[in-house]
């Protein structure tokens, strides 16, 4: 069997293994998914009328604010799902299964590939669920074309891939699953201090650079423009550049950590 065929076979096996873990132990994914759903319902129904009026002017209601915050909530969902990936990787590293794989005729990179592909699929399924809830409570994307919808899905996939590789590295560097959960927490915190809930211009002057120059803000602004059919300016290129850079960084970091021989 060629090296490529071996890699594909073993990666497929590891992917099935990770998906079986999700099916058998769904509590971690559900707990992480609960936070963006609660935030979505809280901001729409408790703060939506006031925030919508602040953004759109008098007469606006929570439906306008729902359209504004949904892109941020979707990226928050991805960040939360990848925390589960970091925990899963840390569990594999601390429970001895990786040491067992090292003694077997298993393609070395298949373990990480299985985690990454499985995590991206989980992210997209979680986004689909949160998006369905948003549609059920009133979100409509009448201004977006079919091409913009395709680009939006592509962006969500790219963000999922970038954050997953970062989460894998965080899981590998953590001493235990609890440490992995704490190390990966910024993946959920950064969307909260971006343009997810209020425009950057409405923030205090000293805080605006923090919100502006981070990876989530251009991704949120791009996704918002694609879903609502509005202008995205340079945010699209910035979002793609951030995603590609984080993917390369996360891949290099993760593979270097994984290739170290255990002490």
UniProtKB/TrEMBL annotation:
<feature type="transmembrane region" description="Helical">
    <location>
        <begin position="25"/>
        <end position="48"/>
    </location>
</feature>
<comment type="similarity">
    <text>Belongs to the ABC-2 integral membrane protein family.</text>
</comment>
<feature type="transmembrane region" description="Helical">
    <location>
        <begin position="112"/>
        <end position="137"/>
    </location>
</feature>
<dbReference type="InterPro" id="IPR051784">
    <property type="entry name" value="Nod_factor_ABC_transporter"/>
</dbReference>
<keyword id="KW-0813">Transport</keyword>
<dbReference type="InterPro" id="IPR013525">
    <property type="entry name" value="ABC2_TM"/>
</dbReference>
<dbReference type="InterPro" id="IPR047817">
    <property type="entry name" value="ABC2_TM_bact-type"/>
</dbReference>
<dbReference type="InterPro" id="IPR000412">
    <property type="entry name" value="ABC_2_transport"/>
</dbReference>
<keyword id="KW-0812">Transmembrane</keyword>
<protein>
    <recommendedName>
        <fullName>Transport permease protein</fullName>
    </recommendedName>
</protein>
<feature type="transmembrane region" description="Helical">
    <location>
        <begin position="149"/>
        <end position="173"/>
    </location>
</feature>
<feature type="domain" description="ABC transmembrane type-2">
    <location>
        <begin position="27"/>
        <end position="261"/>
    </location>
</feature>
<dbReference type="GO" id="GO:0046677">
    <property type="term" value="P:response to antibiotic"/>
</dbReference>
<dbReference type="GO" id="GO:0140359">
    <property type="term" value="F:ABC-type transporter activity"/>
</dbReference>
<dbReference type="GO" id="GO:0043190">
    <property type="term" value="C:ATP-binding cassette (ABC) transporter complex"/>
</dbReference>
<feature type="transmembrane region" description="Helical">
    <location>
        <begin position="68"/>
        <end position="91"/>
    </location>
</feature>
<keyword id="KW-1133">Transmembrane helix</keyword>
<dbReference type="Pfam" id="PF01061">
    <property type="entry name" value="ABC2_membrane"/>
</dbReference>
<keyword id="KW-0472">Membrane</keyword>
<feature type="transmembrane region" description="Helical">
    <location>
        <begin position="185"/>
        <end position="207"/>
    </location>
</feature>
<feature type="transmembrane region" description="Helical">
    <location>
        <begin position="236"/>
        <end position="258"/>
    </location>
</feature>
<keyword id="KW-0046">Antibiotic resistance</keyword>
<keyword id="KW-1003">Cell membrane</keyword>
